[in-house]
Amino acid sequence: MATNLLFLSVIAWYSLGINCGGERVTVYGEKDKTFDGDTDSVGPSSFRQSSTNWALSSTGYFPDNARFQDNFTNVGDTFIYKLTNEIPAMANPQLYRDARLSPISLTYYGFCLANGKYTVNLHFAETVFTNGQTYKSLGRRIFDVYIQGRLVQEDFNIVDAAGGISTPVIMNYTAAVTSGTLEIRFYWAGKGTIGIPLTGVYGPLISAISADPADFEAPTPPPPEVASSTSPGGIVGAVVGIVAGGVFIILLVFGILWRRGLLGQQNTLEDDLKGVDLQTGKFTFRQLKDATNNFDKANKIGEGGFGSVYKGLLSDGTVIAVKQLSSKSKQGNREFVNEIGMISALQHPHLVKLHGCCIEGNQLLLVYEYRKIIALLVLCLVNITLVCLNFIWFMQMGPEESQLKLDWPTRHKICVGIARGLAYLHEESRLKVVHRDIKATNVLLDKNLTPKISDFGLAKLDEEDNTHISTRIAGTYGYMAPEYAMRGYLTDKADVYSFGILVLEISSGRNNTSYRSKEESFYLLDSAHLLKEQGNLMDLVDPRLGSDFNKEEMMRTINVALLCCNATSTIRPTMSSVVSMLEGRAAVQILVSDPNASNNEMEAMMKHFESILVSETNASSQGPLTGSSTSVHDLYPVIPDSSYWENRNERN
């Protein structure tokens, strides 16, 4: 692979051809075109690089792949469909004999392409479904197509586009390559059938891909004698020699500079941000050092995901809360500046107020409003700032006299307040923002128990030109929407999902993941679905509330939470709709879900998070996987070896 990368780094390619799921073939015509073979095993979460200039990645897990027929190659969870029947009369049938499938997301990458405009041809033929009067003709495959991150085909149906089953159709697009890379992505957005003709047969299907220059001519290939002198072996040898010599010289220079003490530290954040208008108040480090009594431990009022928080008193008598970024924090310069910019541009009663910041050398501090609240002896926090909404823990821990008691009207007010804050972020503010890390510890309460959303270090601007944001995954797994946690597909509906989990916690008085015993793990959302199927949803309510609460309002709130937690992001409501439903001004949409589909979705989620849990445990010495303060206890529970799922299926 290293040899391939070295070779690719010095060769410019002017075309791309892939026979998806099939062997290498050449199509003869006015211009002969060779399509590389694509027969490698691709599992539920895989990346494969070809021997030429392309690669593919596949994400997703077919929940019932054991029932696939023989014409599904399923060695090592490879998803390739091979047409075993006679190929219908069509042009270039060798391209449509095989096809690559994926349950959720399938992405092809073309590397080292010369910059310019390309004509991208996508070859499709629906060969899985059949014609006729049987149920096998009822299948519908619907997916989206993205090229270079842009949605070019929404709700694409191969049969409709081709005009029939087993009929080829070539979709043509123009794409600009500006950095040598072409990305083509096929994404299943949860539409179409998932059980016809077989359970688990759904998601994108592609037969072949080609890309050729649209507005420029590829150079004429060199004569044989020249080509031989630029063979991969010769080029690789030259490149290896140059790289080795360059590395030696660089190490020598660095060694000399180090010994002479001339090799300084990296640029400070202050240097990095010269000329950047942060649009907020500025404090000196000396001011904040004096205000917190040199960051005295006695003034420490909390420990956030990115550092400690101290209470401070300015010379004018203003009481403040100072968030000091830890030198070991995962929040880097980008996240720090992001938090400053986001909060300073957003003003709302349910968002924490930012007074300013301090940037001196590598000192990174944020200055927030300070609010006094009742002492919480459980965590030995006295006169704390806006207390974290982690009151669920407070209600479960510590002696009876120290537990924080919240009646239902207060909890409902907190839910509505958080919803209003998110509605402002998503729909009402000048900047459309996706918070990405809505959870109990990132919602603060003032002395009147008014909720305020905080910690914008992971927030992302929701760019209206894009239907979604593909990004590195960051947040807390227990609150992350499945499409984001598993595929990095981020929209404001990810915040809606997190809000739904949070409302379930508030209503039930339990953490999202807790443990009944050493043998059985308990997942709050799964429990809510089971209770609803059994008609016992009221059993989810926190028993500490007794019977003195508005039961109609409680049921409405829980049903809104379940709607927000729908596995399909497009079904989730907007936050403005959530506010209306919580306040009783709009009816709650009640969805009738398929228990089997719910089981399959949950099992797929469990397999995914099991792999993440194992990876995080193995890599614990190197730090967490996400950009937040996530531990293994934040993950969804993983219980693949217990009888839990069998018992759950029996109950359905």
Task: Characterise the protein shown here.
- GO terms for molecular function: ATP binding; protein serine/threonine kinase activity.
- It is found in: Membrane.
- This is non-specific serine/threonine protein kinase.
- It is an enzyme of class 2 (transferase).
- The chain crosses the membrane at residues 235-258, 373-395.
- By secondary structure, the chain is of the alpha+beta class.
- The chain folds into 4 domains: 2-213, Galactose-binding lectin (Jelly Rolls, Sandwich), CATH 2.60.120; 224-259; 265-370, Phosphorylase Kinase, domain 1 (2-Layer Sandwich); 387-594, Transferase(Phosphotransferase), domain 1 (Orthogonal Bundle).
- Helix content is 28%, strand content 22%.
- It contains 16 helices and 31 strands.
- A hairpin with a 2-residue loop joins strand 11 and strand 12.
- It starts with a helix and ends with a helix.
- The relative contact order is 0.08.
- The N terminus and C terminus are likely disordered.
